[in-house]
Amino acid sequence: MNERVKGKKILITGASSGIGQYLAIHIARQGGIPIMVARSTARLEIMADKIYDTFGVKSYWYEADLTNDANWKDIIDQICYDHGSLDALINNAGMAVFGLVSESKWQDIDRMISVNVKSLFRTTHQLLPHFLQQRRGHIVNIASQAGKIATPKSAVYAATKHAVLGFTNALRMEVEEKGIFVTSVNLGPVRTNFFKQADPTGNYERAVDRIMLEPNEVALTVVNALFTKQREINLPSWMNSGSKVYSIAPVLMEKAMQGQFSKK
Predict the structure, then answer these.
(1) Catalytic residue numbers?
(2) I need a labelling partner for 144 at 20 to 30 A (CA). Which of 180, 186, 189, 204 fits?
(3) Which of UniProt's keywords are assigned here (predicted)?
(4) How many domains does the chain have?
């Protein structure tokens, strides 16, 4: 059991599947208290029951559509009312619809911005005064390597993750002397249901299958880093090395990786 996590109340968005569900499981396994948010109440209820049966930990869940800002604001208020102090926030919810900008539907663009950026800003902004008052806390933002290297057919998704990285890096500097940790988690492709919506054809998922990360392993790495001062978690590490080369020589990198970049 991780003593840093034991007894800590940790809010997780997008907790009903993929990385989010494994975050809740590993937090409970290490003695923490998951507070889970997602649209699927049926899955959240099942998860809460399984977590209690397996670990003897009572977890909590809330139904929320993060694209509905007014409703989400009210639910955050309710969570704070129900639980008093929170110890950490993991902004995990995210979505994508891959495609050329010229062929994209505005509702898909708007939803990506709402889920990936606006709801993350909303949650952080609303909980930050609470963390500042208690002079402790950890904010973890699940970003993407796409926030460092943009590729064709992911212009909007990459833009949202660039926004998350910019926000995270600035916020870290604002609160680092006030007892609050801020970490970005920059991921390559992860084997989740994310791609069923992002690319229903399955072409991209098949193209990157051999380099896909396992959500269970990603979640364990994140939970093990909770309440430690860590600027970034980059998975896989070799992909982050590529982003550093890209920042130095973007034209060269785009030409060299054109085939890989165009696999969506």
Answers:
(1) 157
(2) 180
(3) Oxidoreductase
(4) 1
